[in-house]
Amino acid sequence: MSTSLLPSTQRALLRRLAVEQHDNRVPSLIAGLVRDGETIWVDSRGQVAGQPATTDTQYRIGSITKSLVAVLVMRLRDEGRIDLADPLDDHVPGTSIGKRNIGEILSHSSGLSAEPDGAWWERTPGEAADDFVSKIDGRAVRPGARHSFHYSNTGFGVLGELVSRLRGAPWHQVLQREVLEPLGMRRTTVSPVAPHAEGFAVHPWADVVLPEPAEDARAMAPAGQLWSTFDDMARWVRFVGGDTGDVLRPDTVAEMRVPGGVDDGDEWKMGYGLGIQLVRHRRRRLAGHSGSMPGFLATVWADPADHTGVIFMANTTAGVSSAFTTDLLDILREREPRIPEPWTPRNDVDMDLLPLTGQWYWGPTPYVLRILPDGLLDLFPWQGRGRASRFRPNSDGTWIGLDGYYAGEVLRIGRSSDGTPTHLDLNTFIFTRTPYDPDAPVPGGVDGWRPAP
User: Fold this and answer.
1) How far apart, in Å, are the Cα atoms of 328 and each of 61, 289, 324, 333?
2) What pLDDT was estimated at residue 386?
3) What region holds the Beta-lactamase-related domain (predicted)?
4) Is the N end or the C end of the chain the one with fewer CB atoms within 10 Å?
5) Tens digits of per-residue pLDDT, 174-190?
6) Is residue 451 a part of any domain in this protein?
7) What is the pLDDT of residues 385-433, one digit of tens each?
């Protein structure tokens, strides 16, 4: 398959793919890498109906479905139809979690059970939405789980019904109209459309397979129903990384990538935002989702900072290692690290901002303020210890924080009578040109530096 990588890199990636498929006995496995919006490598091992899988072969993507449903919820939020703080009862009344809010359900912190009541939903025909919602009673709530991470497939069944009721159409039709068609994801469907893989379980002690069922989950479909292809998932990786087209604002997707729940441990490496899974790996912050349904496994990760992504899809119930995708990213970074573009001076810098740049002090701590190429201001600690944020200008001469501790906070520029910047007022914190400048309005006053007694 086409690639823009060096032959040695292609071989290293192919070997990692081949080892994964062979050692874990995966009937078919396709994987690839995306960089700067383009697929730079993709290959497959094993066969689907006697042929190698292609980038147009459908696999079931399982819980990756949740991220697409979350986009529908966030579109409703951005339109003002809902607020993430709304209790569920405002829109889907009658459940035991009616007082829990939509944001909690999106981030798996509502306390709702992992699975719905009844038979194993992934392997049995689903039920109608009204019946599903009516069964979410007191038994569906797990004690102590609220305000902590507790993964809930049931919760995303509820969110699919929320979308259906507010849009007046089945959630998957809304998804098709509002997300899949605008993004060009024409091979992502609720039911399989040829060419597609068949799902298998592989016997643990013999090289034989068991066909897995692919039932219509109906009310639970928003938790894991969708089928898709490598090409469509490559577009989805770009979306999660910020290339959102007209579907959502990039800052809304960035909001979805903020941790809302953490899969806790001695050191947290996995978390969950608003319908998006999060992973930390070797200084990377990855966002996307894994997916599993009987007979299928899939994962997509985007690294928004590096404009890189990775995808795999397989038709096996179990076996693909959790390190597979990150190993592919590591091979790319180690063998073909980015070569920076040549630096050149810019001709669009706002020269009136130059007097703001340079060193500032929060108390005795040195900070630096610089102008970014996109016209934003970047305030960061000189020695890396402290709070850093970027700021966007407002029409009234103030600036608004975009990220970090100061996200949403207002930065005001204090000036002398001749317009010279004298201090920064960042939501009551005063930054001065020298440590505790006595001429700046530092709360509590400044008595002057002196030798130790």
Assistant:
1) 19, 16, 7, 9
2) 81
3) 21-324
4) C
5) 999 999 999 999 999 99
6) no
7) 789 999 999 999 999 999 889 999 999 999 999 999 999 999 999 999 9
Task: Please tell me the predicted confidence (pLDDT) of residue 410.
Answer: 97
**291 pairs with which residues across the strands?**
298
Alpha helices in 214-350 (DSSP H): 230-241, 250-256, 324-335
| Closest C-alpha to 244, from 67, 108, 377, 41 | 67
Nearest to 325 by CA among 294, 275, 295, 289: 289
Whether residue 70 is contained in a domain is answered as yes
| Domain span holding position 378 | 352-432
CB atoms within 10 A of CB 351: 7
Task: For residues 63 and 129, state if they share a domain.
Answer: yes
Residue 168 falls in which region: left (phi positive, over 0), alpha (psi -120 to 50) or beta? left
Domain annotation covers residue 447: no
Domain end point (choices 300, 335, 370):
335
For residue 239, the one-letter residue type is F
Are 50 and 139 found together in one domain? Answer: yes
Q: Are residues 317 and 295 in contact, defined by beta-carbon separation less than 8 angstroms?
A: yes
Q: How far is CA 449 from CA 263, 359, 435, 437, in A?
A: 47, 19, 9, 10
User: Which domain CATH number covers 391?
Assistant: 2.40.128
Residue 140 DSSP one-character state:
G
Tens of pLDDT along 40-64?
999 999 999 999 999 999 999 999 9
Which phi and psi (to 5°) does residue 272 adopt?
A: -145, 135
